[in-house]
Amino acid sequence: MGQFSSPGRVALQIAMAVGAEGETLAARARDHGFAVVTGKAGSMDVQKIIAAVETAAKREGLIDEGYRAEHALYHATLDALQGMGRGHLELGGILRTLGLRFAVVKGARIRGDAEGPWLAVAMYGMIGAPRRGHEHEVCGLGVNHL
Amino acid sequence: MGQFSSPGRVALQIAMAVGAEGETLAARARDHGFAVVTGKAGSMDVQKIIAAVETAAKREGLIDEGYRAEHALYHATLDALQGMGRGHLELGGILRTLGLRFAVVKGARIRGDAEGPWLAVAMYGMIGAPRRGHEHEVCGLGVNHL
Amino acid sequence: MGQFSSPGRVALQIAMAVGAEGETLAARARDHGFAVVTGKAGSMDVQKIIAAVETAAKREGLIDEGYRAEHALYHATLDALQGMGRGHLELGGILRTLGLRFAVVKGARIRGDAEGPWLAVAMYGMIGAPRRGHEHEVCGLGVNHL
Amino acid sequence: MGQFSSPGRVALQIAMAVGAEGETLAARARDHGFAVVTGKAGSMDVQKIIAAVETAAKREGLIDEGYRAEHALYHATLDALQGMGRGHLELGGILRTLGLRFAVVKGARIRGDAEGPWLAVAMYGMIGAPRRGHEHEVCGLGVNHL
Amino acid sequence: MGQFSSPGRVALQIAMAVGAEGETLAARARDHGFAVVTGKAGSMDVQKIIAAVETAAKREGLIDEGYRAEHALYHATLDALQGMGRGHLELGGILRTLGLRFAVVKGARIRGDAEGPWLAVAMYGMIGAPRRGHEHEVCGLGVNHL
Amino acid sequence: MGQFSSPGRVALQIAMAVGAEGETLAARARDHGFAVVTGKAGSMDVQKIIAAVETAAKREGLIDEGYRAEHALYHATLDALQGMGRGHLELGGILRTLGLRFAVVKGARIRGDAEGPWLAVAMYGMIGAPRRGHEHEVCGLGVNHL
After folding, report:
1. pLDDT (tens digit, 9 = 90+) per residue, B49-78?
2. What angle is formed at CA E114 by the lines to CA E113 and CA E117, rounded to 5 degrees?
3. Which residues, at least 6 apart from B43, have a Cβ–Cβ distance to it below 8 Å?
4. DSSP string spanning chain B?
5. Which of C2, C3, C140 sits opposite D83 (nearest CB)?
6. C142 CB-contact burial (10 Å; exposed 0-12 / middle 13-18 / buried 19+)
7. Residue F9 is nearest to which of E3, E16, E122, comparing CB atoms?
8. Which residue among B113, C112, D13, E21 is the one 20 to 30 A from E44 at the CA level?
9. Rounded to a whole number, what is the distance in Å from the CA of E94 to chain B's nearest CA?
10. pLDDT tens digits, one per residue of D80-103
């Protein structure tokens, strides 16, 4: 499988990209037929991170205004947050803070799949105590049918 | 931050690498001072995946035979599996199967940190029903002090 | 087994009832020896839903003022909320809101059981994004010995 | 809202129905445009219950052979099992056994919704110790976009 | 509050006792009006530990043969296991093994409480990898109304 | 094994001690080579309890100002809170409040272990409804390599 053969890897590569590399990868992913939205979020409130992902995806038209797409995106986002939180979804509630870059990618589940589009939400960032530098890396990926 | 500035990103890049790119990345990561172990696992039993990671890390000397390092690796592996399982650690027990590539990376938590080594366990693969092709991508990352 | 043979089914039927049917079912359940309390709640705070159930049960005398009965009701309520939340108890904390009708039913665990009363807490409603109409059905049932 | 206005209530009513009433309700639900599949399962293995639901839904053509529909049904089934298990998905693994009737209903999320079909999986039954009669009622509902 | 004023502390002290001290504490607890059962268990299967506690409590008459008491004890035992497992109830399923001493204590919730007896299940032991000496301490306590 | 042979038992004994006995036990534990910090906390906010433990451990020099030790203590504290919360980390969020005494103990994992120090965080207290006396005992223990 190639680097652009599935939306999850594409989303993860973009979320983890260093500097301007993220935009380059997003452009190449769009050339391969994926829709891509990226953004940053930092918060002690999980709901603000969920809202940041949803707002970006709607603003750039990756999903429409209906409930089906929102429902699909919401659960992909929660799944990504499970990887970030590793057992707990709370942030400030258990005295930790999170800063991350996210990417939402829409496209075929794997190359050649004709069943319709899927969504991948990837997040990569740093989680830790509310004290500068007291943090380590975290990552999350959620994939859902649209 | 550069591509090789922290063990989590290094481990994720290697776990997600396509074909021979993984070995190239591992070699470059070693040049940057990281110890790297990679492997593959596929199972409906979570314990077999945990064992595959631990066996590889011990065989290649990334961790020693003591309990401290094993305890650090075990919890980093469980954290990675939280991202893979997204709310449940069961595989066959809830009728799903998992195939993945993993990377274990040992090194400074971030560039310039002098507090001692950390471990990152990254996994990337496909989870799904026990039926060929009925699966989607998953990813997980666990980071722990050694 | 008949429609009024156990407190869980009775509570669920009342919580799901359409319009005035709920009061009819509650009256028939009381004829069969059950104590029944019903109410509505809508919130992004889980604790307000727990409080609404407890307040209704105490106000109508379904449980007394002691801690034993409160403890039994609390855990039956948490169990019902597990069905509503499906893996997470948070509402607003993960950007979702909940509106529901609940029923608390006290009586024999099954027809003919002479071991003493049990409590059933049933909830049925709509969960979704904080946006009108972006929601779907949820249900929960908790059963505990009193 | 009427008794047949949403797939979750329809599925719950059928799963909880006493005797032949379930078939009557299923027939009326089909008259209202819903596709309905029902069945029974009893096991100490969660995967057998998941498989029973999926097998019934495929055999009766409620979902097709593709992965999208299977993915939607799988997650609706897991959500229903969260209500049944209330915090744990294990059955025999924590020394308990489960017997249930289930209903899978496909149709509009609420009356008048034109966004496409949703799936509801409802379960109602008895959970308890592996000893005759040592059990109480449980219920679960999962709803997902198809 | 004194050392024998509540069943949870009594159960914990007995479960953690060194050598013959446990029997001395149990005898003194009985003098204070508590019923006490103790035992040991070691397993990679959670259900065997649940069964060991239940079997001991029934054999020594601490609970009767009915379902109410069994239900109360079961949930107190699960609560104790939450402290032992800290987020996961699996043992062998996530490649770890557990050896423990347990105590079940029946009596007033706190000194002077007249609402009826409660159950406390305490466990103390070692959890770790299936390799001699690769383990650390764990503890759990569950309290429920009888 | 003796009463002072491992940090978990030492921490639990001190957290459960009645009156002045806690200071006596702490002094004896220090004679056996353990570092010991104790304190009290009461809150409906989990983060305040985490902060109370961390603040006490840093103020008395049990851990240094670096991130490694803070990370080790944080996860030991979360593990202890799993035993206190038994399935949920929320307190006020699910309408309950917690008062506790805690002890943090640093030392060899078991007598004779030469691999370096471990941390044990023990908590013992009362959890319940926000109403005087409506509460029961809870306990938790977390153990981590430093």
Report:
1. 999 999 999 999 999 999 999 999 999 999
2. 85
3. B49, B91, B97, B98
4. --TTSSHHHHHHHHHH--TTHHHHHHHHHHHTT-EEEEEEEEES-HHHHHHHHHHHHHHTTSS-SSHHHHHHHHHHHHHHHHHHHTT---SGGGT-EEEEEEEEEEE-SSTT--S--EEEEEEEEEEE-SSTT-EEEEEEEEEEE-
5. C140
6. buried
7. E16
8. E21
9. 5
10. 999 999 999 999 999 999 999 999
Which chains does chain C touch, 3 or more C-beta pairs < 8 A? A, D, E, F
Whole-number Å distance between alpha carbons of B122 and B8: 7
Question: Is the alpha carbon torsion for C52, C54, C55, C59 positive or negative?
Answer: positive
> Which of D14, D10, D34, D12 shows the shortest CA–CA distance to D22?
D14
Q: Which whole-number Å values give the CA distances from E83 to D88, E86, E97, E123, F82, in the listed order?
A: 15, 5, 15, 9, 6
Distance, in Å, from the CA atom of F96 to the CA atom of C67, rounded to the nearest integer, reads: 13
In DSSP terms, E121 is beta-bridged to E104, E142
Phi, psi of E14 (to 5 degrees): -70, -40
A-chain residue closest to D110, CA distance: A67
| Distance between CA atoms of residues A34 and A146, nearest Å | 14
**Whole-model pTM above 0.90?**
yes
User: E96 is written with which tokens?
Assistant: 């770890």
| Confidence check: pLDDT of D28 > 80 | yes
Residue E16 amino acid letter: M
Asked if the Cβ–Cβ distance from C46 to F92 is below 8 Å, we say no
Is the model's pLDDT at A66 over the cut of 70? yes
Task: List b or e across F65-84, with b for residues whose CB sees 16 or more CB atoms inside 10 angstroms.
Answer: eebbbbbbbbbbbbbbbbbb
Q: Residue D116: is it exposed, middle or buried by C-beta count within 10 angstroms (0-12/13-18/19+)?
A: exposed
Q: Which are the contacts of A62, defined by CB distance < 8 A and separation ≥ 6?
A: A35, A36, A37, A56, A104, A106
Which pLDDT value is given to residue D1? 56
* Dist CA A86 CA A80 (whole Å): 10
B116–F68 CB contact, under 8 Å:
yes
Dihedral Cα B53, B59, B62, B66, nearest 10 deg: 90
CB contact under 8 A, D90 and B93: yes
CA distance D23 to chain C (A): 15
Edge to edge, the sheet with strand F135-145 lists F35-43, F97-107, F118-128, F135-145
Question: Cα separation of D143 and D141, whole Å?
Answer: 7
Q: Is the dihedral of CA F30, F32, F33, F37 positive or negative?
A: negative
Q: Can you tell me the mean pLDDT for A41-60?
A: 98
In chain A, which residues have their Cβ closer than 8 Å to the Cβ of D66? 115
pLDDT confidence of A1, banded at 50, 70, 90? low
| A19 — pLDDT class (breaks 50, 70, 90) | confident
Q: Which residue, among E119, E123, E140, E141, has the nearest Cα to E39 in the 3D structure? A: E123
Contact A83 B120 (CB under 8 A): no
Provide the residue type at A42 as one letter. Answer: G
Q: Do E109 and F136 make contact, defined as CB atoms within 8 angstroms?
A: yes
> Which structure tokens are listed for C109?
């665990």
Say if the ipTM goes beyond 0.90. yes
For residues B108-121, one letter each, b for 16 or more C-beta atoms within 10 angstroms of the residue's C-beta and e for the rest, the string is bbbeebeeebbbbb
pLDDT band of residue C124 (cuts 50, 70, 90) is: very high
Paired sense of beta strands C135-145 and C118-128, if any: antiparallel
Angle between helices F67-85 and E67-85 (to 10 degrees): 180
User: Hey, what are A6's tokens?
Assistant: 């599935």
B1-30 pLDDT tens trace: 588 999 999 999 999 999 899 999 999 999
Which domains, ranges and CATH numbers included, belong to chain B? 7-145 (3.40.1510.10)
Whole-number Å distance between alpha carbons of D140 and D98: 12
Rounding to the nearest 10 degrees, give the CA dihedral for residues E118, F91, C82, E81: -50
